[in-house]
Write a structure and sequence with these properties.
Helix content: 25-40%
Protein name: diacylglycerol O-acyltransferase
Distance between the termini: 76 Å
Pathway: Glycerolipid metabolism; triacylglycerol biosynthesis; Lipid metabolism
Number of strands: 20
Strand content: 15-25%
Radius of gyration: 26 Å
Catalytic activity: an acyl-CoA + a 1,2-diacyl-sn-glycerol = a triacyl-sn-glycerol + CoA
Largest sheet: 6 strands, mixed
Enzyme class: transferase
Family: Belongs to the long-chain O-acyltransferase family.
Length: about 625
């Protein structure tokens, strides 16, 4: 006898809040998936000592409830009429996601890289929760890694994670102290999955979403036009008017062809402090230095193959637009800016200067606005149509009919600055692998952890079969840049020693700020606190303390070793901010201002400085 349809129950399922729809931006990673392009990201963590597999499994099981999407799967709407939904997987079994294996002999770095390349090439099962972990034992012949250590290779689909949220998940799974082994491990929380909604419920829910907002597409188009006009006006009123936005030719390189299914990767381990020292010497952002190092390696790689284009290679540089304190929310919150990375310039210092000029002139301001609007536009496009277009684009090589929008992706994700542990075992190194697709066969991911900066290159066997050689070029590019910067620093120091050092240009801002607070005592009360600004002056720094803890503000030069809020900024950037040539948001996006302290103090300082700048 046929089951009676309960319409009331179906309607309740359709309009319940227990299932969450994939956003248009996240869905892009689904319809980009193909036989040669599985769209997952991965991390390879080296853990010293003989960590036991059973202990590792119990740790993962005890923390799964903190990452709900690890027990959810995607459920498609019938006929792909709308974006899929995240639903609880009633068949979830942790053993289907954990894999134990031993590294084959010889148990060295080359073998580990070959094995993980093979694992990374295999797609995740889209019918299950989109993650897997390989627990690889027996790392016996890797330099600076104790014999018997393990490697943990984790794959997560890009539909539910970006770089920043990946760091947030890492902080959930790993410990910040080595006493984890002594602590009593919590038992796994029971998993009571919600029943799967039926097809009619999904159709009703999708239909209701359209009826609720039938003007979604025209509204998004209008917002796009508004953002474009606003960004044009902003650029005309700022220093950007001297330069065009992104109207430059993008060359076709060997990185922009069809890719193969087999992944290749290599990594270069650099000292974070040494790279950061370069930033302090030449000014600009940490990301500028990373781009310059990668640019040197790309230029050499193409030059040796007689494939170096006349026009500079263009890099897509993702920027996180995730709000602070929101790193564990599992979705993609990124914008992109296009940067010419000066591969047409031979001298490394001139290349760096060219890159700094581009990032300093604020392309991020326009492109971040555009990225947010494009995210809304993606939500307005029916999933089935987008899927069809993506399939046709790949099948008929439409990319060959036009120039690529960029040549290579270079991403920089700040990781944990302190040591992480797993059941008392130290995490030695962390490397990030990223997906490549047809037309974009090279992506470089920089990741900082515990004094190390790993710059990991992911490609495929057709585009870059010798990724390990390219990683060597990255190391040598970093060494070459460091040598030239140190030489420049010595020359600059000898010149300065013969004459008196000029005072910082930003001193004028602190003088004006002192007068402003004297005339506006309400601002002192409204932004009560003590803020310390460390101004970079080439090879030295100058400290300013802004004390708003009493009725009368006190602003003076002072050395404060343990401030509650530390603001680090170069003199040139602070002066440009004061003069209105750069925006505060611009400096934050470009990494030219760094705030260290509690979220409350950061917010209070930003509100305070914004009020002053808008006076």
């Amino acid at each position: 006898m046929a089951k009676k349809i309960d319409l009331k129950e179906i309607v309740q399922d359709a309009f319940g809040a227990s299932i969450q729809q994939v956003s248009g931006y996240d869905a892009a990673f689904l319809y980009a998936e193909s036989a040669t392009s599985p769209m997952h990201v991965a991390t390879l963590n080296i853990v010293e000592g003989s960590l036991k597999y059973q202990d590792f499994k119990e740790i993962i099981a005890s923390k799964l409830h903190l990452i709900p999407k690890f027990r959810q799967r995607l459920l498609s709407v019938p006929m792909n009429l709308d974006y899929p939904y995240w639903v609880d997987d009633p068949n979830f079994d942790i053993d289907l996601h954990l894999n134990r294996m031993k590294l084959p002999d010889p148990a060295n770095w080359r073998t580990l890289r070959y094995l993980t390349s093979k694992l990374f090439s295999a797609p995740l099962d889209l019918r299950r929760p989109l993650w897997s972990v390989h627990f690889i034992e027996g790392l016996d012949e890797i330099a600076q890694v104790p014999k018997g250590s393990v490697a943990i290779f984790t794959k997560v689909h890009h539909v539910m994670i970006d770089g920043s949220s990946g760091v947030g998940i890492m902080s959930v799974l790993y410990d910040k102290d080595k006493d984890g082994k002594e602590k009593k491990r919590k038992k796994p929380k029971p998993f009571n999955p919600e029943p799967l909604p039926d097809e009619l419920s999904l159709l009703l829910k999708s239909g209701y979403g359209f009826l609720k907002n039938p003007f979604k597409i025209p509204k998004t188009v209008a917002e796009t036009a508004y953002s474009f006009i606003k960004s044009q006006a902003t650029r005309k009123l700022s220093i950007q008017k001297e330069f065009s936005s992104t109207k430059f030719p993008v060359p076709i390189t060997i990185f922009n062809g069809n890719i193969s299914a087999k992944r290749t990767w290599g990594t270069a381990l650099l000292s974070f402090d040494r790279v950061n020292a370069l930033r302090k010497t030449v000014g600009g952002s940490f990301n500028d230095i990373v781009l310059a190092i990668c640019s040197g390696a790309i230029r050499r790689y193409l030059l040796e193959r007689e494939k170096l284009p006349v026009h500079p290679v263009v890099a897509n540089v993702p920027i996180s637009i995730r709000s602070e304190g929101n790193s564990t929310e599992m979705n993609n919150q990124i914008a992109n800016m296009m940067i010419q990375i000066a591969t047409h310039i031979e001298d490394p210092l001139e290349r760096l200067e060219y890159i700094q000029e581009q990032t300093m002139l604020g392309k991020s301001r326009h492109n971040t606005l555009g990225a947010k609007t494009l995210s809304k536009m993606a939500d307005a496009v029916p999933f089935g149509v987008a899927n069809l277009i993506a399939g046709l684009y790949s099948k008929y090589n439409i990319k060959d009919l036009h120039r690529p929008p960029f040549n290579v992706t270079i991403t920089n994700v700040p990781g944990p600055s302190n040591v992480l542990y797993l059941n008392g075992h130290k995490v030695v190194s962390i490397f990030g692998l990223t997906p490549v697709v047809d037309g974009f066969g090279l992506i470089i991911a920089a990741f900082s952890y515990n004094g190390q900066l790993s710059i990991t290159t992911t490609s495929d066997s057709r585009t870059m079969p010798d990724a390990d050689l390219f990683s060597r070029y990255i190391r040598e590019s970093a060494n070459e840049l460091e040598e030239l910067v140190q030489k420049l620093k010595k020359e600059s120091s000898s010149t300065k020693s013969s004459k008196k050092q000029d005072k910082s240009r930003s001193t004028l801002m602190f003088t004006t700020l002192r007068k402003y607070l004297k005339a506006n005592p309400k601002q002192v009360k409204a932004h009560k606190g003590v803020y310390y600004i460390e101004v970079g002056l080439g090879d030295k720094t100058e400290g300013w303390e802004i004390d708003l803890s009493k009725a009368t503000a006190v602003i003076k030069k002072k050395k404060n070793l343990k401030p509650k809020l530390l603001v680090e900024i170069e003199d040139e950037s602070l002066y440009a901010l004061y003069k209105g040539k750069l925006l505060l948001d611009e400096l934050k996006i470009q990494g030219r201002i760094k705030l260290t302290g509690s979220e409350t103090n950061k917010t209070k300082f930003l509100n305070f400085i914004t009020a002053f700048l808008e006076r």
